[in-house]
Amino acid sequence: MEAKALAAFHRYLEVFNKEDLEGVKALVHPDVKVYFEGTLVKNNFEELLPEYTSDFGVHKRVEISRAPVVSVKGDYTAVNVNLTARVPPTEVISLDFDYVYNKDMVMVKQVITNVNYISK
Prior knowledge:
By secondary structure, the chain is α+β, with helices and mostly antiparallel strands. The protein is built from 3 helices and 6 strands. The protein has a single domain, classed as Nuclear Transport Factor 2, Chain: A. Helices cover about 30% and strands about 50% of the residues.
């Protein structure tokens, strides 16, 4: 399960950085939940869609800052990682993510914490 979760995570980063909205849709569950600093902020992909549109509109790119750590709990596998997001020309943000996958390796939850603006 760990190898499959890591492969799903890396595929997600790949399609995100290519601004491939159809690719993202294929990897994220329609009922995905998104938590930001402990608060539920998105209840499904339809609510999350404007975030991708905005990110792709400013050509945001993400890269791994700390190697992913995988944990398995029952039918769910979480990939915890620190990412650096860059928005041209100067904005740089460091943030922690937990991407949670179901047994089919479809993302069902995103948990975002420790958001730090390095530069704006």
